[in-house]
Design brief:
Length: about 350
């Protein structure tokens, strides 16, 4: 996520400061996502899995626009996005524990195809009335490369080899399927390695199709996106860059931009986009280091050309803790894929 917050120094001086908060701070952040109205959208709902961004990358590699959102996202916001499909990520918890991440059951009533991966598969089963159990002598935990057999009549496995290696990583397993589901894949120790409910458009795998270790994983996801969600594949990263540049220009207008550049992926992408969207005379770039001076003072000094910023440029963070001079209504949030 790229956070741009607008500050007002005086009626004639405005700027946009780039922020990367470690956690979402309290306040009225105003979402101003790059428009995707011209493109189909697939949502990756994150349950705390380590591969959430990798799943999104795989979707984008199929030329389909994708966003990663938290499982805490209100259902009304998900409806408003009108996704063509939804993918549940994995996660480190056991779904039957009281403090495990779960969503309202309304997520299953949107009429949208859903693909659950690992924890996401178990949440789907649990949320629809099935049973998740701990590994036992009949269904042991599995980690690493595992041989699986698939029902190639299933849309997700259509055109693929009947037997191939997948990447497993689970202590719990699907014990009882919900009504309407059937097994379409199994391993020696996992009777429900893959399941489907064709009528609902729900599919799930206990393994991780997004990682390279799963031999046919990319094609499995592609089958879900194209044969189940019926996506057209009308998006590329070039589309995103062009739209991002256009909308940055619209948001910034004739204002000035201060970019705190760490050299990481997020700020480097922001730098590349800003360099194309904003005239060089209105873009100031500073290397970020340890937070020291209050963000607003640093930004004021940068814009007004004070020596304080040049002397302390290595201390600029990204205006953590800065107090905006102006209205929170001028806060903008941009989504950066990745």
């Amino acid at each position: 996520m790229l956070y741009f917050k607008k500050y007002v120094i005086s009626p004639s001086v405005r700027f946009f400061a780039l922020e990367f908060p470690k956690t979402r701070r309290k306040g009225n952040w105003k979402m101003a996502e790059f428009s995707t109205s011209e493109h189909e959208l697939v949502l990756v709902i994150d349950f705390g899995g380590q591969y959430n961004q990798l799943i999104a990358r795989r979707v984008r590699e199929h030329n389909i626009y994708c966003e990663v959102i938290s499982y805490k996202t209100p259902i009304e916001q998900i409806k408003a996005k009108n996704p063509k499909g939804i993918i549940f990520t994995g996660g480190p918890r056991s779904v039957y524990l009281d403090d495990s991440p779960r969503m309202t059951k309304e997520i299953f009533e949107l009429g949208v195809p859903i693909f659950g991966i690992c924890y996401g598969a178990q949440f789907m089963v649990y949320g629809l009335g099935g049973t998740i159990g701990k590994a036992n002598e009949n269904a042991a935990a599995e980690f690493g490369r595992t041989e699986c057999e698939f029902d190639t009549e299933c849309s997700v496995f259509d055109g693929l080899k009947k037997n191939s290696v997948v990447w497993m990583s689970h202590n719990d397993y699907i014990e009882v399927l919900p009504d309407g589901f059937k097994a379409v894949g199994h391993s020696e120790k996992c009777p429900y390695a893959a399941i489907e409910n064709v009528e609902k458009g729900f599919y799930a795998t206990q393994f991780h199709p997004e990682v390279n270790h799963t031999e046919q994983g990319f094609d499995m996801l592609g089958n879900f996106l194209y044969k189940v969600c019926h996506c057209k594949g009308d998006w590329t990263m070039r589309n995103y860059a062009e739209e991002a540049i256009k909308q940055i220009r619209e948001k910034v207008g004739d204002g000035k931009v201060l970019l705190a550049l760490s050299g990481g992926v997020d700020s480097s992408v922001a730098c590349a986009l800003l360099s194309k969207a904003v005239l060089a005379c209105r873009l100031q770039i500073h290397h970020v280091g340890v937070q020291s001076l209050p963000g607003v003072q640093l930004c004021r000094a940068a814009l007004l050309g004070h020596d304080a910023t040049r002397q302390h440029h290595h201390l600029i963070r990204t205006s953590y803790g800065a107090h905006p001079v102006g209205d929170d209504e001028d806060c903008f949030v941009f989504n950066e894929p990745g």
